[in-house]
Amino acid sequence: MISDLHLKDFVSRPVLEALQLRRMQFILRHAYKHSPFYTKAMDKMGVKPEDLRQLSDLSKFPFTQKTDLRDTYPYGLNAVPQTEIVRIHASSGTTGKPIVVTYTQDDLDIWSETTARCFLMGGCSNEDITVIGYGYSLFTGGMGAHQGMEKIGATVIPMGGGNSEKLCMMIQDLNVTAICCTPSYFIHVMEVAEKIGLDLRTTKLRHGFFGAEPWTDEKRDFIEKNSGIHAHDIFGLSEIMGPGVAGDCECHSGLHIFEDHYYPEIIDPDTGEVLPPGTEGELVLTTLDKMAMPLLRYRTHDISCLHYEKCECGRTLVRMDRIRRRSDDMLIIRGVNLFPSQVESLVMGMPGVVPHYELIVTREHAMDELEIRVEVSPDVIASGEEGQAKLARAIHVKIKQMVGISAKISLAEPGAIARCDGKTKHIIDKRQK
Ligand code: DLL
Hints:
The structure is a single chain. The protein is an alpha/beta fold. The chain has two domains: about 1-325, ANL, N-terminal domain (Rossmann fold, 3-Layer(aba) Sandwich), CATH 3.40.50.12780; about 330-430, GMP Synthetase, Chain A, domain 3, CATH 3.30.300.30. It has eleven helices and 20 strands. The longest helix has 22 residues, at about 15-35. 5'-O-[hydroxy(phenylacetyl)phosphoryl]adenosine binds near residues 91 and 337.
Protein backbone atom coordinates (compact mmCIF):
# COMPACT_ATOMS: atom_id res chain seq x y z
CA MET A 1 0.00 0.00 0.00
CA ILE A 2 1.29 3.45 -0.86
CA SER A 3 1.46 5.64 2.22
CA ASP A 4 -0.81 8.68 2.49
CA LEU A 5 1.18 10.14 5.39
CA HIS A 6 2.37 12.97 3.18
CA LEU A 7 -1.18 14.42 3.16
CA LYS A 8 -0.41 15.77 6.64
CA ASP A 9 2.09 18.17 5.02
CA PHE A 10 -0.69 19.98 3.16
CA VAL A 11 -3.28 20.82 5.85
CA SER A 12 -4.39 24.45 5.98
CA ARG A 13 -2.57 26.70 8.44
CA PRO A 14 -5.64 27.36 10.63
CA VAL A 15 -6.20 23.61 11.03
CA LEU A 16 -2.51 23.04 11.71
CA GLU A 17 -2.34 25.86 14.26
CA ALA A 18 -5.42 24.61 16.10
CA LEU A 19 -3.77 21.21 16.36
CA GLN A 20 -0.49 22.74 17.52
CA LEU A 21 -2.29 24.71 20.23
CA ARG A 22 -4.11 21.64 21.53
CA ARG A 23 -0.92 19.61 21.58
CA MET A 24 1.13 22.41 23.12
CA GLN A 25 -1.38 22.81 25.98
CA PHE A 26 -1.29 19.07 26.50
CA ILE A 27 2.50 18.76 26.53
CA LEU A 28 2.92 21.68 28.93
CA ARG A 29 0.49 20.01 31.34
CA HIS A 30 2.24 16.66 30.91
CA ALA A 31 5.71 18.14 31.50
CA TYR A 32 4.55 20.23 34.48
CA LYS A 33 2.82 17.30 36.12
CA HIS A 34 5.32 14.52 35.48
CA SER A 35 8.75 16.11 35.17
CA PRO A 36 10.00 17.71 38.41
CA PHE A 37 12.52 19.64 36.30
CA TYR A 38 9.72 21.44 34.44
CA THR A 39 7.57 21.88 37.55
CA LYS A 40 10.48 23.74 39.11
CA ALA A 41 11.38 25.67 35.97
CA MET A 42 7.79 26.90 35.41
CA ASP A 43 7.27 27.71 39.07
CA LYS A 44 10.49 29.70 39.04
CA MET A 45 9.22 31.79 36.13
CA GLY A 46 5.76 32.12 37.68
CA VAL A 47 3.94 30.43 34.77
CA LYS A 48 1.49 27.55 34.69
CA PRO A 49 0.43 25.42 31.69
CA GLU A 50 -3.00 27.18 31.81
CA ASP A 51 -1.26 30.46 30.91
CA LEU A 52 -0.82 29.21 27.34
CA ARG A 53 -3.95 30.42 25.55
CA GLN A 54 -2.42 31.03 22.13
CA LEU A 55 0.73 29.73 20.43
CA SER A 56 2.66 32.95 20.96
CA ASP A 57 2.22 32.55 24.75
CA LEU A 58 4.96 29.93 24.54
CA SER A 59 7.49 32.77 24.82
CA LYS A 60 6.52 33.10 28.51
CA PHE A 61 7.80 29.60 29.24
CA PRO A 62 11.36 28.60 30.19
CA PHE A 63 13.99 27.46 27.71
CA THR A 64 15.69 24.09 28.01
CA GLN A 65 19.43 23.90 27.41
CA LYS A 66 21.79 21.03 26.68
CA THR A 67 23.32 21.68 30.10
CA ASP A 68 19.92 20.89 31.69
CA LEU A 69 20.15 17.42 30.14
CA ARG A 70 23.66 17.10 31.46
CA ASP A 71 22.72 18.30 34.96
CA THR A 72 19.79 15.90 35.19
CA TYR A 73 21.74 12.96 33.67
CA PRO A 74 20.63 10.30 33.00
CA TYR A 75 16.88 10.21 33.57
CA GLY A 76 16.04 13.55 35.20
CA LEU A 77 13.88 14.80 32.33
CA ASN A 78 11.79 11.67 32.00
CA ALA A 79 8.07 12.23 32.34
CA VAL A 80 6.88 8.60 32.24
CA PRO A 81 7.66 5.55 34.40
CA GLN A 82 10.65 3.51 33.26
CA THR A 83 8.33 0.62 32.31
CA GLU A 84 6.98 2.75 29.44
CA ILE A 85 10.41 3.47 27.99
CA VAL A 86 11.28 1.15 25.13
CA ARG A 87 14.41 2.76 23.63
CA ILE A 88 17.36 4.89 24.67
CA HIS A 89 19.70 6.83 22.39
CA ALA A 90 22.48 9.21 23.33
CA SER A 91 24.33 12.16 21.88
CA SER A 92 27.42 14.14 22.78
CA GLY A 93 27.19 16.20 25.90
CA THR A 94 29.39 19.17 26.59
CA THR A 95 31.56 17.09 28.95
CA GLY A 96 32.45 13.41 29.39
CA LYS A 97 28.88 12.19 29.99
CA PRO A 98 26.56 11.84 27.00
CA ILE A 99 23.07 13.28 26.69
CA VAL A 100 20.56 10.47 27.17
CA VAL A 101 17.29 10.49 25.23
CA THR A 102 14.38 8.16 26.00
CA TYR A 103 11.36 7.07 23.95
CA THR A 104 8.03 5.37 24.56
CA GLN A 105 6.55 3.21 21.81
CA ASP A 106 4.27 6.12 20.82
CA ASP A 107 7.33 8.39 20.59
CA LEU A 108 9.01 5.89 18.27
CA ASP A 109 5.86 5.80 16.14
CA ILE A 110 5.88 9.60 15.80
CA TRP A 111 9.57 9.54 14.95
CA SER A 112 9.00 6.88 12.26
CA GLU A 113 6.15 8.95 10.89
CA THR A 114 8.10 12.19 10.53
CA THR A 115 11.16 10.45 9.07
CA ALA A 116 8.85 8.61 6.67
CA ARG A 117 7.36 11.97 5.61
CA CYS A 118 10.89 13.17 4.75
CA PHE A 119 11.41 10.20 2.46
CA LEU A 120 7.99 10.57 0.85
CA MET A 121 8.74 14.26 0.33
CA GLY A 122 11.95 13.26 -1.45
CA GLY A 123 10.01 10.98 -3.81
CA CYS A 124 10.57 7.56 -2.21
CA SER A 125 7.91 4.87 -1.87
CA ASN A 126 7.49 1.17 -1.15
CA GLU A 127 9.13 0.52 -4.52
CA ASP A 128 12.49 1.70 -3.21
CA ILE A 129 15.37 -0.41 -2.00
CA THR A 130 17.40 1.62 0.41
CA VAL A 131 20.73 1.24 2.10
CA ILE A 132 21.29 2.93 5.47
CA GLY A 133 24.85 4.23 5.82
CA TYR A 134 24.29 6.15 9.07
CA GLY A 135 25.73 4.48 12.15
CA TYR A 136 23.54 2.04 14.07
CA SER A 137 24.44 2.78 17.63
CA LEU A 138 23.55 5.24 20.32
CA PHE A 139 23.51 7.74 17.42
CA THR A 140 19.96 8.26 16.16
CA GLY A 141 20.91 8.29 12.45
CA GLY A 142 20.85 4.55 11.68
CA MET A 143 17.73 3.46 13.57
CA GLY A 144 15.90 6.70 12.73
CA ALA A 145 16.36 6.42 8.97
CA HIS A 146 15.75 2.67 9.11
CA GLN A 147 12.36 2.87 10.81
CA GLY A 148 11.25 5.77 8.55
CA MET A 149 12.04 3.79 5.43
CA GLU A 150 10.28 0.71 6.80
CA LYS A 151 7.26 2.88 7.57
CA ILE A 152 6.85 3.76 3.88
CA GLY A 153 7.28 0.10 3.02
CA ALA A 154 10.68 0.46 1.37
CA THR A 155 13.11 -2.46 1.46
CA VAL A 156 15.83 -1.59 3.98
CA ILE A 157 19.46 -2.77 3.99
CA PRO A 158 20.91 -1.94 7.43
CA MET A 159 24.52 -1.45 6.38
CA GLY A 160 25.79 1.18 8.83
CA GLY A 161 28.90 3.21 8.07
CA GLY A 162 32.41 2.09 7.36
CA ASN A 163 32.63 -0.55 4.64
CA SER A 164 32.40 1.53 1.50
CA GLU A 165 33.50 -1.11 -1.02
CA LYS A 166 30.87 -3.52 0.25
CA LEU A 167 28.34 -0.72 0.16
CA CYS A 168 29.17 -0.10 -3.50
CA MET A 169 28.74 -3.81 -4.17
CA MET A 170 25.34 -3.76 -2.45
CA ILE A 171 24.26 -0.73 -4.47
CA GLN A 172 25.06 -2.54 -7.68
CA ASP A 173 24.05 -6.13 -6.87
CA LEU A 174 20.87 -5.46 -4.86
CA ASN A 175 19.49 -2.76 -7.19
CA VAL A 176 19.61 -0.14 -4.46
CA THR A 177 17.62 3.00 -5.34
CA ALA A 178 18.14 5.16 -2.24
CA ILE A 179 20.85 5.83 0.31
CA CYS A 180 20.79 7.56 3.70
CA CYS A 181 24.14 8.75 5.11
CA THR A 182 26.10 11.91 5.85
CA PRO A 183 26.91 14.01 2.75
CA SER A 184 30.63 13.67 3.38
CA TYR A 185 30.36 9.90 3.61
CA PHE A 186 28.48 9.79 0.32
CA ILE A 187 31.22 11.80 -1.38
CA HIS A 188 33.68 9.26 -0.02
CA VAL A 189 31.48 6.46 -1.42
CA MET A 190 31.54 8.23 -4.81
CA GLU A 191 35.34 8.23 -4.68
CA VAL A 192 35.49 4.57 -3.70
CA ALA A 193 33.05 3.70 -6.51
CA GLU A 194 35.28 5.49 -8.99
CA LYS A 195 38.35 3.69 -7.67
CA ILE A 196 36.78 0.26 -8.10
CA GLY A 197 35.47 1.16 -11.55
CA LEU A 198 31.79 1.50 -10.64
CA ASP A 199 29.95 4.32 -12.39
CA LEU A 200 27.10 5.12 -9.98
CA ARG A 201 25.15 6.59 -12.89
CA THR A 202 24.83 3.12 -14.38
CA THR A 203 23.28 1.76 -11.16
CA LYS A 204 19.66 2.14 -10.01
CA LEU A 205 20.63 4.62 -7.26
CA ARG A 206 18.36 7.70 -7.54
CA HIS A 207 17.88 9.28 -4.09
CA GLY A 208 20.19 10.31 -1.27
CA PHE A 209 19.02 11.62 2.13
CA PHE A 210 21.93 13.45 3.61
CA GLY A 211 22.16 15.12 6.99
CA ALA A 212 23.66 15.09 10.49
CA GLU A 213 26.16 17.76 9.45
CA PRO A 214 26.05 21.09 7.59
CA TRP A 215 26.39 20.96 3.81
CA THR A 216 25.85 23.47 1.05
CA ASP A 217 23.96 23.89 -2.23
CA GLU A 218 27.35 23.66 -3.98
CA LYS A 219 27.91 20.25 -2.43
CA ARG A 220 24.43 19.18 -3.54
CA ASP A 221 25.25 20.24 -7.13
CA PHE A 222 28.53 18.35 -6.98
CA ILE A 223 26.83 15.18 -5.73
CA GLU A 224 23.95 15.37 -8.21
CA LYS A 225 26.19 16.10 -11.18
CA ASN A 226 28.72 13.38 -10.42
CA SER A 227 26.49 10.56 -9.21
CA GLY A 228 23.25 11.15 -11.09
CA ILE A 229 21.09 11.05 -7.93
CA HIS A 230 18.68 13.54 -6.30
CA ALA A 231 20.29 14.79 -3.10
CA HIS A 232 17.88 15.69 -0.28
CA ASP A 233 18.61 17.38 3.03
CA ILE A 234 17.36 15.80 6.26
CA PHE A 235 17.69 17.59 9.58
CA GLY A 236 17.19 16.58 13.16
CA LEU A 237 18.75 16.25 16.56
CA SER A 238 18.73 13.51 19.13
CA GLU A 239 17.38 15.61 21.96
CA ILE A 240 14.22 16.37 19.98
CA MET A 241 13.88 12.94 18.33
CA GLY A 242 16.64 12.21 15.79
CA PRO A 243 16.63 12.59 11.98
CA GLY A 244 13.34 13.67 10.45
CA VAL A 245 12.55 16.86 12.35
CA ALA A 246 12.66 18.55 8.92
CA GLY A 247 13.45 17.65 5.32
CA ASP A 248 13.49 19.33 1.94
CA CYS A 249 11.10 18.83 -0.95
CA GLU A 250 11.90 18.91 -4.66
CA CYS A 251 11.91 22.76 -4.61
CA HIS A 252 14.95 22.79 -2.29
CA SER A 253 13.86 26.11 -0.86
CA GLY A 254 14.51 25.31 2.76
CA LEU A 255 13.53 22.33 4.89
CA HIS A 256 9.90 21.73 5.88
CA ILE A 257 9.61 21.26 9.64
CA PHE A 258 7.03 18.69 10.73
CA GLU A 259 5.31 21.34 12.77
CA ASP A 260 2.46 19.14 13.89
CA HIS A 261 5.02 17.41 16.14
CA TYR A 262 7.95 19.86 16.54
CA TYR A 263 7.08 23.52 17.14
CA PRO A 264 9.80 25.95 15.98
CA GLU A 265 10.75 29.44 17.15
CA ILE A 266 13.69 31.63 16.18
CA ILE A 267 15.28 33.63 18.96
CA ASP A 268 18.06 36.13 19.38
CA PRO A 269 20.80 33.88 20.85
CA ASP A 270 22.02 36.70 23.10
CA THR A 271 18.74 38.03 24.52
CA GLY A 272 16.42 35.02 24.12
CA GLU A 273 13.82 37.30 22.48
CA VAL A 274 11.58 35.65 19.87
CA LEU A 275 12.33 37.06 16.41
CA PRO A 276 9.79 37.55 13.58
CA PRO A 277 9.62 35.18 10.58
CA GLY A 278 12.30 35.86 7.98
CA THR A 279 14.88 36.88 10.61
CA GLU A 280 17.99 34.82 11.21
CA GLY A 281 18.60 33.54 14.73
CA GLU A 282 18.83 30.43 16.87
CA LEU A 283 16.35 27.64 16.23
CA VAL A 284 14.36 26.63 19.32
CA LEU A 285 12.15 23.54 19.21
CA THR A 286 9.33 22.25 21.41
CA THR A 287 8.22 18.63 21.12
CA LEU A 288 4.43 18.71 20.94
CA ASP A 289 3.65 15.10 21.70
CA LYS A 290 6.79 13.30 22.85
CA MET A 291 5.83 11.59 26.10
CA ALA A 292 8.99 9.99 27.54
CA MET A 293 11.10 13.11 27.52
CA PRO A 294 9.18 16.19 26.41
CA LEU A 295 11.46 19.14 25.67
CA LEU A 296 10.09 22.64 25.93
CA ARG A 297 11.77 25.46 24.03
CA TYR A 298 14.96 23.50 23.48
CA ARG A 299 17.81 25.73 22.36
CA THR A 300 19.42 23.89 19.44
CA HIS A 301 22.22 26.44 18.88
CA ASP A 302 21.63 25.93 15.16
CA ILE A 303 21.35 29.22 13.29
CA SER A 304 18.47 29.36 10.81
CA CYS A 305 15.49 31.40 9.67
CA LEU A 306 11.78 30.49 9.27
CA HIS A 307 9.64 31.15 6.19
CA TYR A 308 5.86 30.76 6.44
CA GLU A 309 4.97 31.61 2.83
CA LYS A 310 3.53 28.60 1.05
CA CYS A 311 6.14 26.56 -0.79
CA GLU A 312 5.83 26.00 -4.53
CA CYS A 313 5.33 22.30 -3.78
CA GLY A 314 2.03 23.21 -2.09
CA ARG A 315 3.06 22.15 1.41
CA THR A 316 1.89 24.48 4.15
CA LEU A 317 4.60 23.43 6.61
CA VAL A 318 7.02 26.19 7.57
CA ARG A 319 10.45 26.08 5.90
CA MET A 320 13.72 26.57 7.76
CA ASP A 321 16.90 27.69 6.02
CA ARG A 322 19.65 25.10 5.84
CA ILE A 323 21.90 25.12 8.89
CA ARG A 324 25.26 26.62 8.05
CA ARG A 325 26.57 27.48 11.47
CA ARG A 326 25.96 27.19 15.17
CA SER A 327 25.94 29.69 17.98
CA ASP A 328 28.18 27.52 20.15
CA ASP A 329 31.52 25.78 19.63
CA MET A 330 30.18 22.30 18.80
CA LEU A 331 32.10 20.68 15.95
CA ILE A 332 30.57 18.05 13.68
CA ILE A 333 33.17 15.63 12.37
CA ARG A 334 31.98 12.89 10.03
CA GLY A 335 28.51 13.39 11.49
CA VAL A 336 29.75 12.99 15.07
CA ASN A 337 29.25 15.93 17.42
CA LEU A 338 32.11 17.06 19.56
CA PHE A 339 32.58 19.87 22.06
CA PRO A 340 36.10 21.05 22.94
CA SER A 341 35.02 20.90 26.59
CA GLN A 342 34.34 17.17 26.13
CA VAL A 343 37.92 16.58 24.98
CA GLU A 344 39.12 18.72 27.83
CA SER A 345 37.31 16.73 30.50
CA LEU A 346 38.40 13.41 28.99
CA VAL A 347 42.04 14.24 28.50
CA MET A 348 42.97 16.67 31.22
CA GLY A 349 42.76 14.17 34.05
CA MET A 350 45.37 11.95 32.40
CA PRO A 351 48.81 11.91 34.02
CA GLY A 352 51.33 14.07 32.18
CA VAL A 353 48.74 16.17 30.30
CA VAL A 354 48.65 19.89 31.09
CA PRO A 355 45.61 22.09 30.46
CA HIS A 356 46.53 23.40 27.00
CA TYR A 357 45.17 21.78 23.90
CA GLU A 358 43.81 22.50 20.44
CA LEU A 359 41.60 20.69 17.99
CA ILE A 360 42.66 20.94 14.36
CA VAL A 361 40.06 19.93 11.80
CA THR A 362 40.99 19.33 8.18
CA ARG A 363 39.29 17.74 5.21
CA GLU A 364 41.06 15.10 3.17
CA HIS A 365 39.34 13.39 0.24
CA ALA A 366 35.97 14.75 1.40
CA MET A 367 36.38 13.21 4.86
CA ASP A 368 36.90 15.31 7.96
CA GLU A 369 40.00 14.54 9.98
CA LEU A 370 40.59 15.57 13.59
CA GLU A 371 43.95 16.16 15.19
CA ILE A 372 44.06 16.73 18.93
CA ARG A 373 47.20 18.50 19.99
CA VAL A 374 47.79 18.32 23.72
CA GLU A 375 50.57 19.85 25.71
CA VAL A 376 52.41 17.52 28.06
CA SER A 377 54.61 17.93 31.10
CA PRO A 378 58.43 17.81 30.94
CA ASP A 379 58.49 14.28 32.40
CA VAL A 380 56.47 12.95 29.45
CA ILE A 381 59.02 14.49 27.09
CA ALA A 382 61.78 12.96 29.23
CA SER A 383 60.12 9.55 28.98
CA GLY A 384 61.26 9.40 25.36
CA GLU A 385 59.51 8.12 22.25
CA GLU A 386 58.11 5.03 23.89
CA GLY A 387 56.53 6.88 26.83
CA GLN A 388 55.08 9.51 24.51
CA ALA A 389 53.65 6.94 22.12
CA LYS A 390 52.03 5.16 25.08
CA LEU A 391 50.32 8.35 26.24
CA ALA A 392 49.21 9.26 22.71
CA ARG A 393 47.73 5.78 22.31
CA ALA A 394 45.90 6.05 25.64
CA ILE A 395 44.39 9.40 24.60
CA HIS A 396 43.42 8.00 21.21
CA VAL A 397 41.63 5.03 22.81
CA LYS A 398 39.83 7.21 25.35
CA ILE A 399 38.54 9.61 22.68
CA LYS A 400 37.52 6.72 20.44
CA GLN A 401 35.69 4.95 23.26
CA MET A 402 33.92 7.95 24.70
CA VAL A 403 33.24 10.08 21.62
CA GLY A 404 33.47 7.60 18.76
CA ILE A 405 36.01 9.52 16.70
CA SER A 406 39.41 8.23 15.61
CA ALA A 407 41.59 11.26 16.10
CA LYS A 408 45.26 11.80 15.39
CA ILE A 409 46.92 12.67 18.69
CA SER A 410 50.02 14.88 18.76
CA LEU A 411 51.86 15.72 21.91
CA ALA A 412 53.26 19.22 22.20
CA GLU A 413 56.26 20.28 24.27
CA PRO A 414 55.66 22.43 27.36
CA GLY A 415 54.80 25.98 26.25
CA ALA A 416 54.29 25.02 22.59
CA ILE A 417 50.57 25.76 22.42
CA ALA A 418 49.86 29.48 22.10
CA ARG A 419 48.50 31.16 25.24
CA CYS A 420 46.06 33.95 24.87
CA ASP A 421 44.88 36.80 27.07
CA GLY A 422 41.21 36.59 26.32
CA LYS A 423 39.01 33.67 25.38
CA THR A 424 41.22 30.72 24.42
CA LYS A 425 40.62 29.49 20.91
CA HIS A 426 40.67 25.71 21.07
CA ILE A 427 39.50 25.05 17.52
CA ILE A 428 41.41 25.48 14.28
CA ASP A 429 38.94 24.57 11.55
CA LYS A 430 40.72 24.31 8.21
CA ARG A 431 37.82 22.75 6.29
CA GLN A 432 36.76 24.85 3.38
CA LYS A 433 32.96 25.01 3.43
O1 DLL B 1 22.63 14.35 13.69
C1 DLL B 1 20.41 13.42 13.81
C2 DLL B 1 20.45 13.16 12.34
C3 DLL B 1 20.88 11.94 11.88
C4 DLL B 1 20.02 14.15 11.47
C5 DLL B 1 20.88 11.70 10.52
C6 DLL B 1 20.01 13.91 10.10
C7 DLL B 1 20.43 12.67 9.64
P1 DLL B 1 22.73 14.73 16.65
O2 DLL B 1 23.87 13.80 16.59
O3 DLL B 1 22.10 14.99 17.96
O4 DLL B 1 21.57 14.25 15.73
O5 DLL B 1 23.22 16.12 16.02
C8 DLL B 1 22.32 17.19 15.88
O6 DLL B 1 23.59 17.97 13.98
O7 DLL B 1 21.80 20.28 16.04
C9 DLL B 1 22.82 20.20 13.82
O8 DLL B 1 23.83 21.03 14.34
C10 DLL B 1 23.47 19.05 13.05
N1 DLL B 1 22.65 18.61 11.91
C11 DLL B 1 21.81 17.58 11.85
N2 DLL B 1 21.25 17.49 10.62
C12 DLL B 1 21.76 18.54 9.89
C13 DLL B 1 21.57 19.01 8.57
C14 DLL B 1 21.67 14.05 14.37
N3 DLL B 1 20.78 18.41 7.69
C15 DLL B 1 23.03 18.36 15.25
N4 DLL B 1 22.25 20.14 8.20
C16 DLL B 1 22.07 19.49 14.91
C17 DLL B 1 23.06 20.78 9.07
C18 DLL B 1 22.63 19.25 10.73
N5 DLL B 1 23.28 20.36 10.32
